[in-house]
Amino acid sequence: MKTLRPQKSIAGHTLSNTAVKALLGAAAFGAGLALTLLAASPAKAATGNPEAAKAKVAMCIGCHGIPGYQASFPEVHKVPMIAGQSAAYLAAALTAYQKGDRKHPTMKGIAASLSEQDILDLSAYYETLGKDLPAKAGKGGAPSAAVTALLQRGNCLSCHGENLNKPIDPSYPKLAGQHGDYLYVALKAYQTQGSASMGRNNAIMAGQVKGYTHAELKQLAQYIESLGGDLKTVPQSRFK
Ligand code: HEC
Ligand code: HEC
What atom in ligand 2 is closest to the CA of residue 30? Predict the structure, then answer.
């Protein structure tokens, strides 16, 4: 089973047999859920056209095309890197803003203006954007004992994969190297379910973040930011 490899160790820390079994259980659960989601969503069957997206990205690059660009509402943090993220996850995220499962007001407004085909095209475009640029290098080194324990408690690698950069399902996000302040806001958002104006409704991640303090989520976010991975912000100057 190819999902086994990343679960065996967290950057060199060997897990116990029971831990591996628990991780496998979570992975099987995640994969089963993903299949259900795929079956339920006709959008995933259609394909995106990255060429067609070139006429549509003007709406995105003012924020996602400026390295280090800060969003200031409702919380100050960097806009997430989306170039190099997997298309199926980008489409799932945009659909979640559109449906209101993700409450971020700006992204909700933007997603509301997109058709299903726009979402597929933009997602396909951003998946390949920046593939020609060098990958972000990580700081290296094993996580601290405290971070290792936090990662094991939430079985993070069982779904987000080796180095948190190889998710077991394309509709799950790559995390490695993502801006830490954004990751922290995203993790906290999964702790708020069912609110009309805040948080993110997602059954899988709600289960994962339950029981973590904000300080622990921040520690996880800072560690994940230090990893090397595929995610990038490709500057606006490259669009001509
Ligand atoms: C005004 C700034 C702004 C613009 C314009 C904008 N975004 Fe965003 N985007 C954000 C912010 C801020 C977030 C983080 C929202 C949150 O916390 O959920 C985000 C999140 C996202 C995410 C989720 C990323 C993840 O890792 O889950 C996707 C996908 C996305 N944007 C795609 C787009 C696309 C495609 C466009 C153009 C059609 C666009 N955005 C335009 C600011 C912007
Ligand atoms: C059972 C599978 C599973 C496990 C275990 C899991 N995740 Fe996730 N994670 C997901 C899925 C699916 C999403 C996408 C949710 C959505 O669409 O909003 C996600 C989303 C995220 C996001 C948002 C990324 C973004 O770009 O907005 C972060 C951050 C995250 N996970 C971190 C973690 C951490 C840290 C752990 C361990 C404490 C963890 N995850 C454990 C499946 C999992």
Answer: 1
